[in-house]
Amino acid sequence: MIVFVINKHGEPLMPCKPRKARLLLKQKKAKIISYQPFTIQLFYGSSGYKQEINVGIDLGAKHVGMAITSEEKVLVKGEIELRQDVKQLLDIRRTYRRSRRNRKTRYRKPRFQNRTRSEGWLPPSIQSRIGNTFFWIDKFCSLVPNPKLTIEVGKFNPHKMINPAIQGVDYQQGQAYGYHDVRYFVFARDQYTCQVCKKKNKILNTHHLVYRSHGGTDRADNLIAVCTDCHTDENHQKGKVLWNWMMDGKRLPSYKEGPFMNIFRRRVFAKYPEANISYGSITTPKRKELGLEKSHANDAIAISGIASIKQNVNTMFNIKQFRKKKRSLHEATARKGRKTKNTTSKRNVKNVKKLKGFYLNDRVQLFGQVGYITGFTGASGAYVKSIDGDYITIPTKNYKQVGLNVLKRTCHNNNWQYEQRSLG
User: The whole model's pTM is what?
Assistant: First the structure.
């Protein structure tokens, strides 16, 4: 673990060890300006001795690896987890809004003045991941002197991932080309076999792996063939086979990460024109030469261009974004049919951001573990999760709520969770 250092004029210096930072703070020669990552600023304008600093970035659709190296030493390494829930939340919000507008403004004429999009527009789910990645790249590069940035990008051909023999005019014809509709393509793809009982020569239906009521689509990658004997109302009920498939995340192969990485690559070229660009075919041999196991952080070390490793850190950081604001102003269950006006109930009573001095996403300690407050309940309760998304509960209890009186706040966070983990 190292501490980033900024001089009096805001210029980055070489990072120092925690002991050196502790002495500077104790002697009143520096102050803390950031805890995530831990950064101090000197009260004097030292220029300092500056070595060559390499920053390696391993881009991914769900995780981003990052490493900072210098003179055969690994100074910092870690992973950033990108949000995957943006599209689902926007779909829920759109459903609530449409339902309310249908109830309240049923005869309003449609408006089409807000359908234009600015140049370079991206869907919010993609823009969120790209923006968050660029934010942390700029953040770490601003904390070290004269960083030499190297980024690994990916170039994918989704058509060849589906059909390696594709060529010529086949690129203009989708998977369902030649079939009457998507339904018959799904039957042929599943070889006219029920995916539940595995029997053939039966009357088949198409089943949505993710129900449309839960945000599922009618695309082929969300449909499978199920016979009429298995495609019943009973099997759709909670705890039955078709419901469990949805809850367990049963999915057909998805190829949406390929187009995303292609978009990402072009944005990287425009954002960092002076950065060195690398590819996976170059990273893998380098990582094996360095004797590192496969991980996003270790890939970033190899990407940084370090020739050999004489000193490696025994800690790594994990960064994850937390959604604080609930932008769905309307709830799913409408209040209607009341004889008298409901003047006491509050629409967002469950969307509490603070309670008795605690705030959402505060980092707390309880029962010997470290977690983050993800919600409040009642007058003095909260839900606490680890950075991995696991609930931290009272030992020997089944419910998830914990009392605020057992929480000890470590620090107050914004919408990011930043955690250092020991590898030893």
Answer: 0.84
Q: How confident is the model at residue 176 (pLDDT cuts 50, 70, 90)?
A: confident
**Encoding tokens for residue 182?**
């998507």
The residue ranking higher by pLDDT, 175 or 60, is 60
How far are the Cα atoms of 30, 122, 137, 261, 309 from residue 271, in angstroms, in the given order? 33, 15, 11, 15, 30
Compute how many other C-beta atoms are within 10 angstroms of the C-beta atom of residue 149: 19
Q: Tell me, letter by letter, the H, E, C secondary structure of 333-383.
A: CCCCCCCCCCCCCCCCCCCCCEECCEECCCEEEECCEEEEEEEEECCCEEE
Fold of domain 354-422:
SH3 type barrels. (2.30.30)
Report DSSP state, residue 109: P
Give the residues across from 77 on adjacent strands.
67
The helix or strand, by DSSP H or E, that contains position 21, with its residue range, turns out to be helix 18-26
- What does the pLDDT look like over 128-146, one tens digit per residue? 999 999 999 999 999 999 9
With the C-alpha atoms ordered 200, 202, 208, 209, is the resulting torsion angle positive or negative? negative
Beta strands in 109-255 (DSSP E): 147-152, 204-208, 223-227
Residue pLDDT, tens place only, 387-398: 998 999 998 888
Cβ–Cβ < 8 Å for 228, 203: yes
Q: Report how far residue 404's alpha carbon sits from residue 357's, in angstroms, rounded to the nearest whole number.
A: 10
The per-residue pLDDT for range 210-253, each reduced to its tens digit, is 888 777 888 888 899 999 999 999 988 888 888 888 877 777 77
* CA dist., res. 46 & res. 344, Å (int): 61
Which residues are within 8 A (CB) of 233 and not within 5 positions of it... i.e. 6 or more apart?
none
CA 11 to chain CA centroid, nearest Å: 31
E strand residue ranges, 218-298? 223-227, 276-278
Domains in the chain: boundaries:
3-42, 177-248, 354-422
How many Cα atoms sit within 13 Å of 163 on the Cβ side? 11
Residues facing 377 on adjacent strands: 381
Cα distances from 32 to residues 7, 42, 156, 411, 415, in angstroms, run 12, 9, 43, 14, 20
